[in-house]
Design brief:
- The structure holds two protein chains of two kinds.
- Chain A has two helices and no strands.
- By secondary structure, chain A is mainly alpha-helical.
- Chain A has a domain of 35 residues.
- The N and C termini of chain A lie far apart (58 Å).
- The relative contact order of chain A is 0.07.
- Chain B folds into two domains: 71 residues; 113 residues.
- Chain B has nine helices and no strands.
- In chain B, α3 crosses α6.
- The two termini of chain B are 30 Å apart.
- The relative contact order of chain B is 0.17.
- Classes of the chains: A mainly alpha, B mainly alpha.
C-alpha cells in the first residue's frame, strides 16, 4: 500500500503530463488555507490590541 | 437541568471557553491527518487506469465539495435554532460560517474546473452538479453581502436565517443532481448505502483527506466565530477579560 507510485522525483512532479493540474490545485488549496488562517488570526490579534488599548 | 445545560451552552462565553480548550487538539490532529493523507494520495496511491494521475485532484476536490455542502447544512441548523429559540450564538455562527463556506465552495469549483481540463476537455460545463455548486457559492456571497448591508444586526440575523433556510433547498439538488440529470460529472463514488466504487488503496487516503480537511475547516469556523462574538459582544465585561 505504501509503495512510491512513481519511478523517480521528476516523474512524481511531472505525473505523466498531469502534474500541472494536480500541483495547481494543490497550491491553490494550501495557499487559500494558509491565508485564511493568517487572516482570522490577524483579526483576533487586532481585537485583542483594541481591547488592551481601552 | 436540561434547560440549565441548554442556557449554559447557548452562551457565547461558554462557547469561547470551550472552543479555546479544544482548538489546539483539533488543529494539530487535523493538520497531521491532512498532510499524511495528501502525501499518501499524491505519492503512494496507484494511478487510475482511465484518468491516469489527474484523478489525484480528488484528494483536494472531494473534501472541498463535501465541506461546501456540509457547512451550508450547519448554517441551516443554526438558522433554525436562532429562529425557534432565539439563541444569539446561532446567529453569530451563521455569520462566521458564510465566508468559510464561500471559500470551500470556491475551492470545489476551481479544483473541479482544473480537473475538467484533462478529463472533460473543458474547464467549464453548464452541468447540473457544477451549476448547482456555483449557485451555492453565489448564495454564500449573497448572504455575506446582505448581512453587511444592514445597520440593525438583529434584523439582519432574522432576515439571513430565513434566507439560509430557504436556500437549503439547493443542498439535495446538488447531492442528487448527478442522479436526476444526465451530467458530465461522475455519480457519487461513496454513498451511505452502497459499497464504494473506489479501490481501498485510493479510498483510505480520500477518507483521511476528508477528515483532515474537515478538521482544519472547523478550526477556521472557530476562529471566525470568535471574531464575530468579540465584535458583537465587545462591550461586555467578559470579553474584555477574555481577550
Amino acid at each position: 500500500m505504501f509503495k512510491f507510485a512513481f519511478t523517480d522525483l521528476n516523474q512524481f512532479i511531472y505525473m505523466e503530463g498531469h502534474g500541472i493540474y494536480v500541483w495547481s490545485v494543490f497550491s491553490i488549496v494550501i495557499i487559500s488555507l494558509v491565508l485564511a488562517f493568517i487572516f482570522y488570526n490577524k483579526q483576533l490579534k487586532k481585537i485583542k490590541r483594541k481591547h488592551s488599548n481601552e | 437541568m436540561l434547560k440549565k445545560l441548554y442556557h449554559q451552552f447557548a452562551s457565547p462565553k461558554t462557547y469561547v471557553v470551550l472552543v479555546d480548550k479544544i482548538y489546539p487538539i483539533i488543529f494539530y490532529t487535523s493538520l497531521i491527518t491532512y498532510v499524511f493523507a495528501l502525501i499518501w494520495g499524491l505519492a503512494f496511491a496507484p494511478s487510475d487506469y482511465m484518468q491516469g494521475n489527474s484523478y489525484r485532484i480528488i484528494y483536494m476536490h472531494v473534501p472541498a465539495s463535501f465541506l461546501s455542502e456540509s457547512l451550508y447544512i450547519a448554517m441551516a441548523i443554526a438558522a433554525a435554532i436562532f429562529l425557534i429559540w432565539k439563541v444569539k450564538l446561532a446567529a453569530y455562527i451563521i455569520k462566521a460560517i458564510a465566508p468559510i463556506g464561500a471559500l470551500v465552495a470556491f475551492l470545489a469549483l476551481v479544483s473541479g474546473s482544473i480537473w475538467g481540463i484533462p478529463t472533460w476537455g473543458t474547464w467549464w460545463q453548464w452541468d447540473a452538479r457544477v451549476t448547482s455548486t456555483l449557485i451555492l457559492f453565489i448564495m454564500y456571497l449573497g448572504l455575506i453581502s446582505l448581512h453587511s448591508s444592514f445597520t440593525n444586526y438583529e434584523k439582519a440575523d432574522k432576515f439571513i436565517s430565513v434566507l439560509v433556510l430557504i436556500g437549503s433547498v439547493n443542498i439535495p439538488i446538488i447531492k442528487k443532481s448527478v442522479d436526476w440529470w444526465n451530467t458530465l460529472h461522475q455519480p457519487a463514488s461513496i454513498t451511505l448505502t452502497d459499497k464504494p466504487s473506489i479501490d481501498p488503496s485510493m479510498l483510505y487516503p480520500l477518507f483521511l483527506s476528508m477528515l483532515g480537511f474537515s478538521g482544519l475547516i472547523i478550526c477556521l469556523v472557530i476562529l471566525s466565530s470568535k471574531v464575530q462574538i468579540f465584535n458583537r459582544e465587545g462591550n461586555k465585561t467578559w470579553v474584555k477579560y477574555h481577550v
